[in-house]
Structures are given as C-alpha cells and as structure tokens.
Amino acid sequence: xxxxxxxxxxxxSVNGRVLHSLITRPVSGEDSARYSLKTSSAGMxxxxxxxxxxxxxxxxxxxEDVYGHDGDSIFVADGHGMRGLxxxxxxxxxxxxxxxxxxxxxxxxxxxxxVYIRESMVNLLxxxxxxxxxxxFVHMRMLVSGGRRFVLTTNVGDxxxxxxxxxxxxxxxxxxxxxxxxxxNRYVKNCAHPKNVCYNRxxxxxxxxxxxxxxxxxxxxYDVQNNRAVxxxxxxxxxxxxxxxxxxxxxxxxxxxVRIPSDFHENWGSSVMLYGTARGQNMATFGDVxxxxxxxxxxxxxxxYVHEVPANAVVVGIVQSDGISNxxxxxECGYIGFTAGSSAAYLSSVSCPRDxxxxxxxxxxxxxx
Length: 369
What we know:
This protein has helices at 84-91, 103-108, 110-127, 181-190, 233-240, 242-246, 289-295, 322-325, 330-340, 343-348, and strands at 2-5, 8-9, 17-18, 35-44, 55-56, 59-62, 65-69, 73-80, 134-135, 137-145, 148-156, 160-165, 168-171, 197-199, 222-225, 228-231, 270-274, 277-278, 286-287, 303-309, 315-320, 357-366. It is an alpha+beta fold. It folds into 2 domains: 2-176 and 300-366, 4-Layer Sandwich (Phosphatase 2c, domain 1); 192-281, no CATH class. A hairpin with a 2-residue loop joins strand 10 and strand 11 (148-156). The radius of gyration is 20 Å and the shape is globular.
C-alpha cells in the first residue's frame, strides 16, 4: 500500500487551501451502481484513565475517549486534562451540524460546503467552556447518490481519519499539533506574537533531560526568523542520538518512533511554551480556552475535506484517536483496517497500548446484482 495525504497549500490563510478530490464526470452506467455500508466502533481505555465509565448515552467511552457510529457516519473525540471526559462528551456532539449536508450541495459548490461546516463548527468551539481541558474531534460521513459516493471528513486536533481503497491509504485529516511544521507556519503567519514550541515537556515541566550545552534548558523545536519557522536541527540531532546515551535502542527514532516514516522531529512530541512552562500538545481543540487565549490560535482552524470514492471500489474509512497510531504506522493501519472487517477486530490487534484507544470504521462495497 501507498500512504498519501491531501494537498494543503500555504496561502497565508489560517487553514491553507484544501484541494478537494472530486470526480466531475462519472463514467456512463455508474449512476445506477449500488453499495452496501456497514459501520462499527470500539474502544479500550488505558489503566491510567480508568474511571469505570464505559458508556455515555449513545456513545462508547474508553478512558477519556468518546466514540460512536450511526447509519452513515463514524466519529471519535479524544479528551485530555482534568475534565477530559466531559470535554470529549461535549465535543462529539458537534457531529450533529454535519448531518444536513447533501450530495447536491457538494456537486454544486464544494467550497461553499466547506465554508458552511467550518463556520458552524467555529460557533460551537466558541461555546466550549473548558478552561484547562479539551478534546479533539474527528468525523467521517459517507454520502451516496446516483451511484456516486462522497466522504466528508472534519477534524479539530490530532485524531486521524483514513480512507483505504485500491492499495492507497489516504490521510484525510490534518493534525492540528505543534509538531506539524506546515500547520505551525500558518499559525506564525496569522499570529502577531506566535509562541515558541519545545520538544515534549522536557525541562519545562517535571521531566529533566540534558540539553546539547550540558544544561537543562527547554529544547526548542523551531527557530523562527522573518515570519518563518524551521526545525532546530541541532536539538533534533541531539535528541535523535539519545538512544546511544541512554542505551535504549527502542527510542532511536523518538519516543513515538512507530510513526516513522514521519519527519523525525514529529516522533518526539511537542508542547507550546507559555511563560516558561510547557502546555498542551494540540494547538486547536474543543476547549482549552486558557491556552487558546494565551497562544492566539484562531478558532477557525477547523479542517474540512471532501473525497469522492471511485466507482466499484471497496472502501474502508477509519477515524481513530492517536493512541492507536502511537503503536502502528498509518500504512499498517491501512493494511489491517482493510481486512479487519470491524472496529473490534481492528482494535484487538494493537499490542501494548500506552494510551486510551478508540476507533470507528465503515466498509462500503459494491452490490453485485
């Protein structure tokens, strides 16, 4: 399989320019094609977040994750902070604003659909009143009409959405995290006083790690010059050699090394620096109003993407919290997800989880008459 990601161009706007994947001229005869659609969801809470809650109304609960599915949609919210479960329970309700979009609107003007969804989501983000807690949100909905299938993806934060068909793993979400250089540079362009970012929480929290100069200063992820950020290569090389100094080969490519082949600096995690202290690893979430106020991260950093699936292809959609991709690469997610058949089977193959894990899946197959 080949892993692909959608094109996001830095055009000076908050969200960049999303190039939606649409097939504008269906092949003759495909307008009568019919497809099945099966949805499922599952979760597994980590012992560090075990509070005995397994269900919240119609949703499943896994630690601080909330997840679920309905007839044509799959969704996950990954909470964090002292009120993480409350935040994720509230965040997942944002899915309801996505139910009114139809195929006719997408075909007529996909950009207008994107604007409508983003504006609706921003209104809900403004209402989130969680000061020091928050939640990601990722949602996938399949719309079928006249033999055409469209997948509408929306996400805030770093939970992932994957679409798998024809030996391709299409990453349909954008991680709103500080270690995504493209996203951080858009933040730098749109913020009068952008905040610095350090690797993980070392030396800016309770964790201590020797820096390249022999001290214990926070190791900065980026150098920012002339309104542009670049990765601090010296600190990256120092961290990448940590496995030798600590005699731990397992961290050769970072504490989240399973994410390879992502850029090396992303595998070490990152946090924004607020008054000398490392804070949240997500730059855009539902909640976290104190961090948002200090960092000036724009509310409208909401990702929306429309992807039309080619006719006659078996397609699998996956939304998941990052606890899963901390244990397997996105390509492995594609391999396993395409053959798993259900969320429970997909989740059961994850070994040695280090965080809460939640996943929701859909499978759409052509119906052979």
